[in-house]
Amino acid sequence: MPLPYLLTLLMNFALYVARWLGSPWHTISPYTGACAPVWLAISPQPLLDDMETGQGKGKWGSATDARGRERVTRTEVEGWGWGGAVEDEKIVGKRKGRWRGAKALTAETRTEFEELGRAVWKEMEGLRGIWEERLEASALGKSMEEE
């Protein structure tokens, strides 16, 4: 739903202020926000695999500098840490791209994250099965009506 013009101006101003204060995640425009998804879609898989060698599977996001120049930046996933590697508490705050409240990934939190991921995936697969059954029933219903 579109915002009134004045609210749009105020929102954009607040996003610019956040960017000027150092937040790389306020891309503001759809063009800069699409930087990471497009880069991931067109990059060859061997390049992506090489970039994650030694760091584990990570999260890539669209970011900007204070002047608005877009870039793709690796960041962490809460509960998975930086690439899923168990970390030493001393390095957590020193890695570029980490948020200030980041916690070191422990073996226990990683196990919890993986179990949650399995449960979510299982639920999604169940929903996919229900959806496919409904589509099939809908297709059969239409074809029977046509006859």
TrEMBL record:
Keyword Oxidoreductase: yes
InterPro entries: Ergosterol_Biosynth_ERG27
GO molecular function, one term: 3-beta-hydroxysteroid 3-dehydrogenase (NADP+) activity
Superkingdom: Eukaryota
Broad EC category: oxidoreductase
Keyword annotations: Lipid biosynthesis, Lipid metabolism, NADP, Oxidoreductase, Signal
Known EC number: 1.1.1.270
Signal peptide location: 1-18
Entry protein name: 3-keto-steroid reductase
Species whose genome carries this gene: Cryomyces antarcticus
